[in-house]
Amino acid sequence: MNYPRTFQPLSQLNLGKKGSFYSFSNRGGNHYHLGRMNSTNSTQRMLEKIDPEVALELTKRYLPGLLAAIVVLVIAFSLAHFLGKLLGKALERQKLEPPARNLIVRILRLLVIGFGLILALDNLGLSITPLVAGIGVAGVGIGFAMQGVLANLISGIFLTLSKPFRMGDYVELLGVEGQVVGIELFATHLAQPDKSKVVIPNRKIVGEIMHNYGGVRQVKMEVSVAHGTDIPLAIGLIREVLNENRLVLKDPTSGIGIASLGQGCVVLTIQPWATVENFPGIRHEIYQSLLVRFAQAGIEMARPQYEIRLLDGLDSSRIKSSTH
After folding, report:
1. Burial of residue 295, with CB atoms counted within 10 A of its CB: 0-12 exposed, 13-18 middle, 19 or more buried
2. How far apart are CA 78 and CA 89, in angstroms?
């Protein structure tokens, strides 16, 4: 069956009314009238009447393509979801990091959906060549306008592939520190001990000096005891406190020793290890336990000491004036 190919005006008919009739004509010479159109100031208005035969012909011509495009899009979205889920499980069995796994899954889904969109447009009879050219021209302008966003995206891909840190690591960079709780394409999220969150754009991370503590941290503490204290006894008590504390890791071994000799005191250093989650509260527990143990053992904590000497030959008036 031959469908209408062109849309052309017929000659104006003399029906006693002003206006023009338009119709579709096919290759066989058959005409399908659309209806009468009134013209005002040489401007044509919308069609007032549609011939049922023309409507039927248009439906037969475009409806199958429209339905096919809808079906293609539904299949594309369903297939993208299914393949992404399947690929995600496969990458999870390979013990791939979640950020890299999510990135690969997203790229696969976008490719499948994009291919489905091209097929849908082809079923509608639309040429995709001008569309691709338009997207290319628009992409150049959008690229200039979104340089920061694209820089974050590229940096996020670099961080995902290079893996300078992982989820759960405690890092210090750009003057801030915290536990990594999210690595996304555009930003990295750090959790603070006060339950707040710091969001750092990925382009700020790449190329900067970073200190990665990993999943454990070493606590650096100092305790000052008076001169004459039994140092081996004090160190033994400190070691007992660390062994009894549930937050202190047994491996690596905690460091205990003399840090320095101060005025009127001996400074002991204590360097236990703890996980990132237990790091904020471990210092308070150790200090509290040490105060109790030292008091029970009679170990005196260092206090500030001042020595005042009176020199012979100075009268009392000069001494009094110097004390005011």
Report:
1. exposed
2. 17
CATH 2.30.30.60 fits 166-214, yes or no: yes
The token pair that represents 142 in the structure block: 């959008």
**How many C-beta neighbours within 10 Å does residue 188 have?**
25
C-alpha to C-alpha distance for 122 and 131, rounded to whole angstroms: 12
Tens digits of per-residue pLDDT, 221-256?
Answer: 999 998 888 999 999 999 999 999 999 998 888 999
The Cα 159–Cα 166 span in angstroms is 10
Q: For 295, left (φ over 0), alpha (ψ -120 to 50), or beta?
A: alpha
DSSP 301: B
At 179 the three-state DSSP class reads strand
CA distance 121 to 132: 12
The answer regarding whether domain 217-297 maps to CATH 3.40.1280.10 reads no
User: Would you list the domain boundaries of the chain?
Assistant: 1-50, 62-145, 166-214, 217-297
Alpha helices in the chain (DSSP H): 52-93, 98-123, 128-145, 147-162, 202-205, 231-244, 279-297, 316-323
Q: pLDDT for 87-138, tens place per residue?
A: 888 878 766 667 777 878 888 888 888 888 888 887 777 776 776 677 777 7
Structure tokens at 150: 């694209």
Per-residue HEC secondary structure of 237-284 comes to HHHHHHHHCCCCCCCCCCEEEEEEEECCEEEEEEECEEECCCHHHHHH
User: Nearest 5 degrees, angle CA 247-CA 251-CA 255?
Assistant: 85
Give the amino acid at 323: T
In angstroms, the Cα distances linking 111 to 84, 120, 228 are: 11, 14, 75
